[in-house]
UniProtKB/TrEMBL annotation:
Annotated keywords: Membrane, Transmembrane, Transmembrane helix
Keyword Transmembrane assigned: yes
Species per Swiss-Prot/TrEMBL record: Actinoplanes lutulentus
Transmembrane segments: 31-52, 64-82, 166-189, 221-240, 247-264, 270-289, 301-320, 365-384, 396-416, 428-447, 454-473
Protein name: 4-amino-4-deoxy-L-arabinose transferase-like glycosyltransferase
């Protein structure tokens, strides 16, 4: 090599080492990322607005606009987040921006008030706390939520401190927790693997679960509790790694306090938190026995599990003893129905029956679980190959998260049963956490192989497939999009007529009046109307009032219950005799009412109340009528139906 050539090479080498060169490249990358995501966020938001407008006007192309809007931002955000050269600040900005953007669909769906079934209950509960200052009051729509006041107390406190309405205080809290969920998953994965790209990948994979866009962004206790669960798990893993006794004790105390906050907010989330800690403790124990390692980590994990379990047991035993009876029927009936399907009997659900979702969205819903299974198999193979070379704690904890993620697959089978479908959907937000944490290392490993462009393109296509398919399987189109009024849909229960009837009831009868109603009238009367409706149950079958044929006696036992429990009014929606509910429910999930595609009631069944002397009509609208119970007239004969 000549002296001249050597000098040139040395000059080039010295220039590449200049401190400002790296900053310049980093600045260019940040500017490119900011420009890309700003443009795609604006385009995506515009497409989402168009999708909602098209749905509101009765169009049929809202699905294409919606997914174009989501993917036009999601895919570039994922690309920038997992780039090897991205700085820590850039990754943080990408995750925060992604979290804010993915709250847009729910924000656009109902920016001004409650819309989903549980939102009416939680909004009403927070509203009552703000008015009366009393916790642990029973809720007429979801009877168990009064015993878990964490969400409602927080929303009411924010409203009182800021002067915001209850709904806007709730939005502020929900947007914050949505951001914390995304960041929390990245931090959780970071407790196992030092590569920050794995944390970003885990956050994006978790965001593909069916609860992320709509269910865990609604005003519901899981929306707050799941953020606390994720940070409790991250804190717990950090505590298990702690090198000093003081740090471990402090970490255990902090994690148990987070567990207390979780159980004070949501029962299922607290149970999942306990179970996940238990699996991690078990995995660490197995490693400590076989390899004489992780002894301290295993003891710490069992301390966290025991502390969390004691807090949950105390709360559910002393504060919320009805939780078990509330949850048991759903699982018991689901297992019974699933057993019937295995035996060849009827009683299952037909997926997408009568759905207006396009064929391609429905097909992705069927493909998504298979794609997730392939990803889990790949993650398991990678874990097996690295189990001896990796950090022992990472090996043990990721094995526990593999088991958590594996629970996603049997839950998908429960979607085939009427009683298990709701529980299956609600479990995916938790099982997907395990899936995301263990699949993320495999994604980064694939990106680090040759032909990164091809591999990255395939991964982005898989991301798009999972995002569309999981949401198609998890939420009905009527929940995702606005549209013309439809009878029998929770999201379209707040019609002007029902709102007017509820307002009349509140203005003329005051608050907290007990009444009997169908599911959809009960939502409005129990929230905006501030009343205490019941929609029936197996032990209190108020739907038998509606089912009774004209001229036939009403069950004396039911009448005795109504009278002794001080029910004053009966709400009748005559559309029950004219239309089939959109979600195939009139009163409650396990109602003994036929669902054969025809209205389950006749006009005579609903008109019979006009002739009963122990019912006095006090309100009559085009479809909604309200009757006052006059139990003192129960001995009188039923008048004949006038011709």
């Amino acid at each position: 090599m000549s002296a001249t050539t050597a000098g040139i090479d040395a000059g080039r080498s010295s220039r590449t080492r200049l401190p400002g060169a790296g900053l310049l490249r980093g600045g260019r990358e940040t500017a490119a990322c900011a420009l890309t995501l700003t443009v795609t966020a604006a385009a995506g938001a515009a497409a989402l607005v168009v999708a909602f407008r098209r749905a509101e006007w009765g169009g049929n192309d809202q699905f294409g606009y919606f997914w174009a809007g989501m993917l036009i931002f999601t895919l570039p955000a994922a690309f920038w987040g997992v780039r090897r050269t991205a700085s820590a600040r850039l990754r943080l900005a990408v995750l925060v921006g992604y979290a804010l953007f993915t709250y847009l669909p729910k924000l656009l769906r109902n920016p001004s008030g409650p819309l989903y079934h549980d939102e009416y209950a939680h909004w009403g509960q927070a509203h009552d706390i703000l008015l009366d200052g009393r916790l642990f009051e029973q809720n007429p729509i979801v009877r168990v939520i009064g015993e878990y006041p964490g969400l409602h107390a927080t929303v009411a406190s924010l409203a009182a401190l800021t002067g915001l309405t209850v709904w806007h205080a709730a939005l502020l809290l929900l947007i914050t927790t949505h951001v914390l969920v995304v960041l929390g998953v990245a931090v959780l994965a970071g407790q196992l693997w030092p590569d920050p790209r794995i944390g970003v990948a885990a956050a994006f994979v978790y965001s593909l679960n069916s609860s992320f866009l709509y269910f865990d962004t609604q005003l519901g206790y899981e929306s707050l509790a799941i953020a606390v669960l994720i940070w409790a798990l991250a804190g717990g893993l950090r505590t298990m790694r702690a090198g000093t006794r003081g740090a471990r004790i402090g970490g255990v105390v902090l994690t148990v306090l987070l567990a207390l906050a979780t159980v004070a907010t949501h029962h299922l989330t607290a149970l999942w938190l306990t179970g996940i800690f238990g699996l991690i403790a078990l995995a660490c124990t197995v490693v400590s026995v076989r390899r004489r390692e992780l002894v301290t980590a295993a003891r710490t994990a069992w301390a966290l599990t025991s502390g969390t379990a004691l807090v949950v047991a105390f709360w559910m035993g002393a504060v919320a003893p009805r939780t078990g009876s509330y949850l048991d029927p759903y699982l018991g009936r689901a297992l019974g129905q699933f057993g019937g399907l295995a035996g060849g009997s009827s009683g299952g659900r037909t997926l997408f029956s009568g759905s207006v979702a396009p064929w391609w969205e429905q097909n992705t819903a069927f493909v998504a679980p298979g794609f997730a299974l392939l990803a889990m198999i790949g993650a398991t193979v990678l874990w097996w190959r690295r189990r001896r070379s990796a950090d022992p704690f990472t090996t043990a904890a990721s094995a526990a998260m593999l088991l958590v993620g594996a629970l996603y697959f049997p839950a998908t089978l429960l979607i085939l049963t009427p009683s298990g479908a709701e529980g299956a959907r609600r479990s995916w937000a938790f099982s997907y956490l395990g899936l995301a944490v263990v699949v993320a290392p495999m994604i980064i490993a694939l990106l680090d192989r040759p032909r990164r462009v091809f591999t990255g393109s395939l991964l982005l296509c898989g991301c798009a497939l999972m995002l569309v398919g999981n949401n198609a399987a998890g939420m009905n189109p009527s929940y995702r999009f606005p549209g013309p009024p439809v009878f029998g849909s929770d999201t379209k229960a707040a019609t002007p007529e029902v709102l007017a009837a509820a307002a009349w009831m509140r203005e003329t009868q005051g608050r907290e009046t007990r009444l009997v109603a169908d599911r959809y009238s009960g939502l409005i009367f129990g929230s905006y109307g501030e009343q205490e409706p019941t929609t029936g149950s197996e032990s209190f079958p108020t739907y038998d009032l509606y089912l009774a044929q004209p001229g036939k006696p009403i069950s004396p036992a039911l009448l005795h219950q109504l009278r002794s429990w001080r029910f004053e009014f009966l709400v009748v929606d005559r559309r029950m005799a004219e239309q089939v509910p959109d979600i195939k429910i009139y009163f409650e999930t396990n109602e003994p009412i036929p669902h054969d595609g025809r209205p389950a009631f006749t006009k005579a069944q609903l008109a019979k109340f006009d002739t009963m002397p122990w019912l006095i009509k006090v309100y009559d609208g085009p479809h909604v009528a309200i009757y006052r119970f006059d139990f003192d007239s129960l001995g009188a004969k039923i008048a004949r139906n006038p011709r």
